[in-house]
Structures are given as structure tokens and as C-alpha cells.
């Protein structure tokens, strides 16, 4: 598996190890993972329940500390940063999309989308804003509050919010977990278009072989180790790989 750190690589982990607890209660959630995520690619992380998917994403995104090893986002070795530096890095370079859309209910869709930039005192790039709004099809919903939007529309607002800051990478944790299959397909299609058309880099954790098939590449975890990967996956090849892993 490649671990090169050239400009085409957005995120790299080397020897990434995460142990929860100590002594007899210790759980080795990640056992020395080497993985690289290419810039402008859509990668899915899959594996059986408890295999370490969420832990890997949290360590890659600087949301959780690592026990050993390194993580680099762009040219920044995040495992060496102080908490304050990490907060700034997450704010300025990383986008997040969660299963629960995490929108502020009193703000309109547009205000939710612009909020992270406002917090960071950054100017929205109006050309990008318009392009993102067109891409996710929200033009006629900008003045609506989240409670007036469907689940799929709310998640599209969350996708737009993540895209608008032009982060080096977006981490998505089960982004379609709360959506019906049609809304889920729409959101996945927007994620894929943001990679193809805006050059965005996306790393997504999912249980769903259909969701994973929207990615360019799928990496598979088992018991805290990376054990397999697929390029240009289909739902069937993802399912076959999962079945083989769980055998
Ligand atoms: N805070 C924690 N304290 C102790 N053990 C933990 C903690 N978080 C996760 N674990 C353990 O680490 C291992 C990996 O968990 P993780 O949540 O990363 O797996 P996952 O593949 O995302 O699972 P799922 O698909 O069920 O969400 C599991 O054995 C889990 O019980």
C-alpha cells in the first residue's frame, strides 16, 4: 500500500496505532496502519462492526489522539500539534459531514452554509458558493430553516457547508445513515460530483456497499488492520470482499 507524501496525497497515516484503556482492559483498535489518501479522490473505509473504522477516521481528522504513529494532512504532521493548533487546523483545512446533519435549527440553510467561514473570519468565495449551491441543488431552499427541509436536503446543506471552505479533505461518517435510499443516492451523487468537478478530496466511513460503490477506492479494515482494497468498486465487488472478510 502506498504511503508517498507527494502533492497528490492529501492525508497519510504511518504506523497508526490506537489503544483504548490500559492493562487487561486495553483494546488495540488500530494496529499499525499505513495508508495514503490521494488528493481529488473519493475513498470509502469499510469493515465489520468494531474493526476500527470510526477510530481510524477520528485519528485521521485529529478528533482523537493516537497512541503511536503519524498522521499528516497536506504538509502538516497533525500528531505533533497542540490542542489549539489542532482546533485551528480542523477549522481551516478539514470539512466534516456526520450522520446526524448537525445543522443549527435557528439559522437558514444559507446561514448554516456560511457559518464556518464566518467563525473563521474568512470571506466566502462567491463563485464557489454559487457553484456549490448549483451542484447540490439548493438554490430555492436557501432561506429555509433545517426544520423546513427534508433529511436529504438537510444533508445537502451539510455537504455544501463542508465544501464551501475548500478544505484539504472532507471526512464523512456514515453520511447517508439517516436517509432513505433515494435521498442517500442524491447525497452520494453530490459527493462524487464535488470530487469530479471541484477536485475535492473525500474520505467516507460507511457500512453500505452501495454507498461505498460511489467511491473511487474502498479500503477494508479487520481487527484494526488494513486488509484489502478495491479500485472502481461496484456494490457486488464490495459485498463479496466484505463477505470474504467476515468468513
Ligand atoms: N472510547 C473507547 N473506549 C474503549 N474502546 C473503544 C472506544 N471506542 C472504540 N473502542 C473499541 O475499539 C474497537 C474499534 O471501534 P470502532 O468504533 O472504531 O469500530 P467501527 O469499525 O467504527 O465499528 P462500527 O461499525 O460498529 O461503528 C472496538 O473494539 C471498540 O469496542
From TrEMBL:
Q: Which InterPro entries match?
A: AAA+_ATPase (IPR003593), ABC_transporter-like_ATP-bd (IPR003439), ABC_transporter-like_CS (IPR017871), ABC_transpr_LolD-like (IPR015854), MacB-like_ATP-bd (IPR017911), P-loop_NTPase (IPR027417)
Q: Where is the ABC transporter domain?
A: 11-247
Instruction: Extract the coiled-coil ranges from the record.
Output: none
Matches recorded under SMART domains: AAA
Q: Which Pfam families match?
A: ABC_tran
The source's superkingdom equals Bacteria
Q: Name one GO molecular function term.
A: transmembrane transporter activity
Q: Is Nucleus given among the entry's keywords?
A: no
- What protein name is recorded for this chain? ABC transporter ATP-binding protein
Amino acid at each position: 500500500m502506498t504511503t508517498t507524501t507527494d502533492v497528490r496525497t492529501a492525508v497519510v497515516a504511518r504506523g497508526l496505532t490506537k489503544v483504548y484503556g490500559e492493562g487487561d482492559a486495553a483494546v488495540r483498535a488500530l494496529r499499525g496502519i499505513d495508508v495514503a489518501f490521494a488528493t481529488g479522490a473519493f475513498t470509502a473505509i469499510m469493515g465489520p462492526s468494531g474493526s476500527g473504522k470510526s477510530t481510524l477516521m477520528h485519528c485521521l481528522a485529529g478528533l482523537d489522539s493516537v497512541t503511536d504513529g503519524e498522521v499528516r494532512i497536506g504538509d502538516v504532521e497533525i500528531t505533533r500539534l497542540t490542542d489549539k493548533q489542532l482546533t485551528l487546523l480542523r477549522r481551516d483545512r478539514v470539512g466534516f459531514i456526520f450522520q446526524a446533519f448537525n445543522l443549527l435549527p435557528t439559522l437558514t440553510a444559507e446561514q448554516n452554509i456560511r457559518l464556518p467561514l464566518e467563525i473563521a473570519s474568512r470571506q466566502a468565495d462567491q463563485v464557489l458558493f454559487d457553484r456549490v449551491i448549483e451542484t447540490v441543488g439548493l438554490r430555492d431552499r436557501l432561506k429555509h430553516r433545517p426544520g423546513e427541509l427534508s433529511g436529504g436536503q438537510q444533508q445537502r446543506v451539510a455537504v455544501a457547508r463542508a465544501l464551501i471552505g475548500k478544505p484539504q479533505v472532507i471526512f464523512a461518517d456514515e453520511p447517508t445513515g439517516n436517509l432513505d435510499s433515494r435521498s442517500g443516492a442524491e447525497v452520494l451523487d453530490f459527493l462524487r460530483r464535488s470530487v469530479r468537478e471541484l477536485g475535492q478530496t473525500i474520505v467516507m466511513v460507511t457500512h453500505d456497499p452501495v454507498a461505498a460503490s460511489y467511491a473511487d477506492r474502498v479500503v477494508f479494515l479487520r481487527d484494526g488492520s488494513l486488509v484489502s482494497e478495491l479500485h472502481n468498486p461496484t456494490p457486488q465487488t464490495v459485498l463479496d470482499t466484505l463477505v470474504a472478510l467476515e468468513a
